[in-house]
Amino acid sequence: MTIPYFHILAANDLGGLSSAWDFLHKGGIFMIPLGLTSVAGMMAILYKFLSLSGGRVVPKSLAREVTQFQERIATDRVAPILKEFEKGESALARLAAVVIKHRGKPRGEITHAVESAAREETMQLHAGIAVLDTVITIAPLLGLLGTASGLVLIFQGLGDNSDHLAIARGIAEALTTTIFGLAIAVPCVVAHGYFVRRIELLTARLESLLGDLAAVCEKATPNV
């Protein structure tokens, strides 16, 4: 009698879930805070991927309009782009609106106003990074704490008639928390490095675009 293929898949899935549960169960009570830490790390990574998308910080279409702002003034076609600035749907739009608000003023005043507004935007760009920093620090420490706790229990039971095979298995189980803690920390370290670099690139792009816009608005005509 042939066993249906989907039955085999279901059995494999159940076996995989059982193995995963056994692995987590071996870690003891310290797997609970480690599990919460892993959830916090995943949520922070997901949040940063969404918040640092190009459309939320420096949309390509709006960046192109900013670079062509001088031409828009010359052809009297600035109304649409000014409306985009007013909507404030991205960091570039909100900061560009600050530049437009101070148009016609000396370059220093415009720059100071933009820098003040940019501090809040920078805080938004870095939101969630502190969570990753905390996860990167805490996850391995929790793993080591769980391992140390397990080893203490094992060594307390040592004696002349100890089962060395059982001790070896106990040590292997005690190391489960360290493995899990490192498994949480490593992806967070990689994500942290990527996000920091991404923020640096976006910040540099914003500075370049806003600098050009400020130079135009410094000598902009009153009807802009």
Helix content: over 70%
Spatial separation of the terminal alpha carbons: 82 Å
- Succession of helices and strands: HHHHHHHHHHH
Strand content: under 5%
Low-confidence stretches: 5-16
Q: What is the count of helical runs?
A: 11
Class computed from helices, strands and strand pairing: mainly alpha
Average pLDDT figure: 81
Structure characterization notes:
It is a single chain. By secondary structure, this protein is an all-alpha fold. It has 11 helices and no strands. The termini are far apart. Residues 5-16 have low confidence and may be disordered.
Write the layout of secondary structure elements.
Layout: H1 5-26, H2 31-51, H3 54-57, H4 60-67, H5 69-74, H6 79-87, H7 91-101, H8 107-126, H9 129-156, H10 164-174, H11 176-218
Outline:
The protein is mostly helical. Helix content is 82%, strand content 0%.
List keywords for this structure.
224 residues; mainly alpha; rod-shaped
